[in-house]
Amino acid sequence: MGMTMTQKILAKHAGLDSVKPGQLINARLDIVLGNDITTPVAINEFKKSGFTRVFDRDRIAIVLDHFVPNKDIKAAQQSKECRDFAGCHGVSHFYDVGKMGIEHALLPEQGVVTAGDCIIGADSHTCTYGALGAFSTGVGSTDMAAGMATGMAWFKVPPAIRFELKGSLPKDCSGKDLILYIIGKIGVDGALYKSMEFTGEGVKSLSMDSRLTVCNMAIEAGAKNGIFPVDDITLEYMKGRCEREPVIFEADPDAEYEKSYEIDLSSLVPTVSCPHLPENTRPAHELGDIKIDQVVIGSCTNGRMEDMETAYRILNGKRVKDGVRCIIIPATMEIMKECADRGYISAFIEAGAVVSTPTCGPCLGGYMGILAKGERCIATTNRNFVGRMGHVESEVYLASPATAAASALTGYITRYSCGE
Amino acid sequence: MNTQGTVFKYGDNVDTDVIIPARYLNTSNAAELAAHCMEDIDDEFVKKVKPGDIMVAGWNFGCGSSREHAPLVIKTCGTGCVIAKSFARIFYRNAINIGLPILECPQACDAIEAGDSVEVDFDSGEIRDLTIGRVFRSEPFPPFIQRIIKAGGLLNSIKEVSGE
Q1: What's the domain count of chain A?
Q2: ipTM of the complex
Q3: What is the mean pLDDT of chain A?
């Protein structure tokens, strides 16, 4: 029986010729990742278990991104623990303020992750790197500690669901609309424990940034990982960027999929996910008058250059509606600098928005945009659970950067129309 | 190994943001975090929970963030085990890795009500609802995972294998 792309990468890293869904394996890890929330717990476990050395200082990435620049004294203590550990073990991929970015935008940008890798990260959105043709999945802090000590992790080989993409996206849609549509269709546990494998001729119409957004939210359907085939767009993106040679895996022609969905990209419309689950999706134009208090454009899902370009195209020369707070967060320092060089930051400020240094901040209700009781936000982030961005009686609507920026101008959830 | 206690019942898709809201994650101190366990959907939970008590929930328990703080606070509150129709995969891994007993049993989750007195035998996978007088059987873990649980978590099991 043939193997899927994910199964092939796992087999290779387990030193096996083939693997089957359900099989328990021990796999070699290329990168082990943690952030300022999850790494301190991993450090405790690492020390408590008596480990004194990391398996390879070049294969560990620690990114301070959730609560930095530190939001309070406790957060500062947690960052310091990460900093001390990274210094003590000579962790080469340690990203502190000034160098940091939101981890899942930063690691692909800096070429730390590459095609064919097997990656774990103590952050659920670690599945993002599947866009490069890697196996990448979120785990907890104890797995991170074990990974740092041994360079290995246990996995149950996942079965797969295939998404066969056809055609190309309409001009007013992006990868975010595609992944929200898919989550709406299969539900928040529609891909539980499984791989989401994206294939078909429609893949070539998706930019790298859109693919990263799609894989980023695979976890929102419960998936173990999301993965794209490697094509010219991937190779072009990785060229001169990745520190290790990419290894290209392809699914076998007779690979087995539990289910297959065919999606005509040209039939998609701008999509919004309503409170309080990502699966509560509706076409943006069917929502009626939903007044908003805040807009957030950023996060590991949508804080990349393409997202900033979209926000600029819509906000440039316009004014954010009075009474709406529009917060724009470029995901890395490189993106921030590019926005400055291109004049986007001035345009955002002139439009009445604020621009923040990279942080996960508001997405998880940490800081930098917390909602009060009864307030409502449209955000390009990834979760709209109860209390996710602040008060337990606040609401988050998830959408693309285009829908979020268009809504900032009107004060209501608004479908962006390219003709405008 | 077993546990006996009173049931706290929740619905489908209980996410890690309601188990432990991110606003408290500026510390990794388990006792400090545990004071906020479930507060966004049930602010009575931490006041009422006693050692050995049991959480019963629907599908996809623990979805969302990878924060290990979620199973950790449930365990630190004294909860003896979580029974759900299904678990989100990172929560499932984390619970095993830190030694919080979890069981998947859809029939039990439909029948058991909040406040019932329930006894769970982890070796046999038997769930006995003493209030309604019914017995349910959950699927045992595969041997690989049982080894991790018996060793007291992932790191201990790794050290056993490597002979350290």
Answers
A1: 2
A2: 0.94
A3: 97
